[in-house]
Amino acid sequence: MGLIDFAKSVGRKLGIGDDDDKKPQAGGTTQAAPAGTPTAQQVQDAKDRRRAAAIVKLINDMGLKVDELGVRADGDK
Known about the structure:
The chain is mainly α. Helices cover 44% and strands 0% of the residues. It has helices spanning 3-14, 40-61.
């Protein structure tokens, strides 16, 4: 199992997998977004940060000692 496969399986177990992206959209009509509504890119960035934080938390919970761990999620990568 590669590192990417491991990270994907961890994401599924933590409930932060691709399921968020596959939920059907209500309605289907295009409306102008109200002021202050996040853009699609901002929503994706927030999801990526949440995924990265969950991976860091999992590693810390496992008791692994790591100095200066950097984790970046980019979609499902």
